[in-house]
Design a protein that fits this description.
This protein is α+β, with helices and mostly antiparallel strands. It contains 9 helices and 8 strands.
Amino acid sequence: MSQEPAKTPATAFAGGPMLHAQFDALARELHARPYGVVAAPARVVHLALTGGDSAVERAALTRLCATQEVPAPPAGASHVQLECEGLRLTWERHAEFATYTFVLPWRGTAPFEPASALALPHDWIAGLPGQVIAAVQLALIAGEPPAPAVVADLFEGRNIVGGVAAGGLAELATDFRPDRENFVRMIVHGGAVSSPRQAGRLVQRLLEIETYTMMALLGLPLAREINPAVTAIERNLAGIAEATTGAEALEDEQALLKQLSGLAAELATLGARTPYRFGAARAYYALVQKRIEELRERRIEGRQTVGEFMERRLSPAMRTCETMERRLEALSERAARASDMLRTRIDVTLAAQNRDLLLSMNRRARLQLRLQQTVEFLSIAAITYYGAGLVGDLAQGAATVGYAVNEPLAVAVSVPVIGGLLMIGLWAFHEWLGRD
């Protein structure tokens, strides 16, 4: 099992400063997933499983190590290589999936054998957590390349894909179709490959192309699933935009805004489901393209290269996901613009209603002011009348005690005096209210 011993934190050199706490971990990260070493001829069985748990996977590896009497993998490891008798297993834990790659010695003459006939720990494989997303049986052969007719028989007459790879040192053949046991068959004739490490890199690239292709395609079912809902939202949004131009009453605009809020909620629900899956599809597709580029393929007459096959088969699926992602983004922007427009119309309508209400309140206030002024003048007249009456009574009383007072004259003089004093007092009261 490949495992580097942990180093004790120390100085970078004698008498130098202390190493960073993560120095060793960061340095080992560059070499955490080395390419395997595969010498031709050999059989390679590759499984990629999603939905598993890394702790459960490490526990399964620990059980396998116990049966093979080899050291158990370290805690937290994400890449483990086990060297057993007649078997080499490489386990890698990725973000969404785990891969198990078995390198078996070449036995027999047939490039492919039923899985049950291969020297694999079948009971242990059956207990692995997760679901198989990719399965590959690869034959790395040496010597003379098989004749085209033999290759056609191995792939049951299906369309064969592959070219000359690794700068002309190897020849590839596959159909990227699962066989009866759900394995994708691949043949690599590596007779001219210079070293087992070079062959291991080539095999690893092919296995990753199949694995990353299947992981990238996980976005396509989601795109197809949400397509009817997105189409319905587009149609409803267009209907709301058309109805907005003809809406006149505030109630109609508020009803349209309520419908638009419902569409926005649906878009938010769809948007919560899609970003990770579509983003992962883009990342996996970029990895597939990078691995194909690293193959350095040349065409074999009458066959598609792996790059041409993926361009014709995988690229449309990725464009479907990209198109769906752009549609969702465009719909969100359109819904936001329509919502802003409706809210603006409602605000303008409410402002007009508030203006009319204020004008009506102003008219009522002016009428109330005029009525109040009329009442004030009537009150002055009434108070003057009663005041003049009191003056008349005083004049009569004065005449009774012997004072000669002309009652009518006193009343006549009191009327303007009382009225004037009341007017001056009312004016002073209004001035005081205005200052306050």
